[in-house]
């Protein structure tokens, strides 16, 4: 039986795809670690959602986040000697279509809303915030190292999708969004 621990990271380093060792505090590890945290947050949010259409989209997103994470964990971009799955512009475009579909159902708004509402909506808002942090981490990494630009676009669209889904969960449960007041 293979053990879950290797002791390889006990001194604060880990291996990237391709074998290079790096500090666990590096921008690259921070970026794909934030994606991992986002994936876990989506799992929690999805456990509070009963709508099959939304559950199915979020499960697909969770699978796609493994590709995002592996893309970030491979420093060889734009080359791909390790045959690492990469995020594509097509998957970003596909997400835009999903956002458009559900935005029609919730309608547009011209004001800021307070995160909250149903448990599912609240957790989706939390995941949206984590998605924004993951996006910022990927952007920070891209300032000094090569990053697939589709990764940043994907995380940007994902935060928009999660915002729309949070509003959708409130609407489908007859909970009104609360406008931000100054």
Structure characterization notes:
By secondary structure, this protein is mainly alpha-helical. The protein has one domain: Hypothetical Protein Ta1238, Chain: A (Up-down Bundle). The chain is 59% helix and 5% strand. A hairpin with a 5-residue loop joins strand 1 and strand 2. Helix 1 packs antiparallel against helix 4, helix 3 runs parallel beside helix 5 and helix 4 packs antiparallel against helix 5. The radius of gyration is 18 Å and the shape is elongated. The model has no long low-confidence stretch (mean pLDDT 95).
Quick description:
This protein is mostly helical.
**DSSP helical segment count:** 5
Please tally the β strands and state the result.
4
Tell me the strand order in the biggest sheet: 1-2
What is the CA-based Rg, rounded?
Answer: 18 Å
User: So what's the CATH class?
Assistant: Mainly Alpha
Give average pLDDT, whole number.
95
Outline the biggest β-sheet. Answer: 2 strands, antiparallel
Helix fraction, binned, reads 55-70%
The CATH architecture designation is Up-down Bundle
Number of domains: 1
Distance between the termini: 59 Å
CATH topology category name: Hypothetical Protein Ta1238, Chain: A
Low-confidence stretches: none
CATH evolutionary superfamily: Cobalamin adenosyltransferase-like
Residues in β-strands, percent: 5-15%
Order of helices and strands: EEHHHEHHE
């Amino acid at each position: 039986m293979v053990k879950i621990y290797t002791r390889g990271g006990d001194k604060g380093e880990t291996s990237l795809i391709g074998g290079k060792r790096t500090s666990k505090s590096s921008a690259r590890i921070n970026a794909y670690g934030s994606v991992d945290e986002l994936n876990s947050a989506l799992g929690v949010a999805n456990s509070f959602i009963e709508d099959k259409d939304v559950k199915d989209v979020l499960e697909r997103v969770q699978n796609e986040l493994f590709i995002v994470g592996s893309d970030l964990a491979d420093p060889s971009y734009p080359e791909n000697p390790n045959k690492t799955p990469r995020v594509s512009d097509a998957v970003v475009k596909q997400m835009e279509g999903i956002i458009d579909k559900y935005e029609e159902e919730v309608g547009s708004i011209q004001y800021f809303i307070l995160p909250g509402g149903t448990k599912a909506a609240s957790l989706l808002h939390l995941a949206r915030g984590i998605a924004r942090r993951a996006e910022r981490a990927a952007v920070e990494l891209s300032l000094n190292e090569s990053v697939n630009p589709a990764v940043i676009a994907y995380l940007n669209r994902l935060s928009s999708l999660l915002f729309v889904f949070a509003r959708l969960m409130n609407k489908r449960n007859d909970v009104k969004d609360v406008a931000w007041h100054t």
